TrEMBL record:
It is a single-pass membrane protein. Coiled coil: none annotated. NCBIfam families: tatB (TIGR01410). This is Preprotein translocase subunit TatA. InterPro entries: TatA/B/E, TatB. GO terms for molecular function: protein transmembrane transporter activity. The lineage of its organism: Bacteria, Pseudomonadati, Pseudomonadota, Gammaproteobacteria, Candidatus Pseudothioglobaceae.
Amino acid sequence: MFDFGFWEIAIIGIITLIVVGPEKMPSLARKAGLYFGKFNKFLNKIKSDINEELKVDEFKEQVSMDQEKISLSEVAEEVRSSIHSLEEDNFLSKEDLKK
């Protein structure tokens, strides 16, 4: 995440040891670890929330596309039905003309 190498961490540790002292160093490291853990949990929660929202948006988009397909198929069926009825009327008209 922060891409710290060994030497960067070693330098930070030495500076912290000099500033804080060896007595307070373990408790400070423990507190830093706890806060770092809380920060990571917070970031993971945000990432999961964003991913869930993206999935919901994708689902809504898919449902919308499916509804459009259904309405188009209904229109196509209506057109087929109208064409079939016109063909029947045309056939009946030709039969009437023959008589």
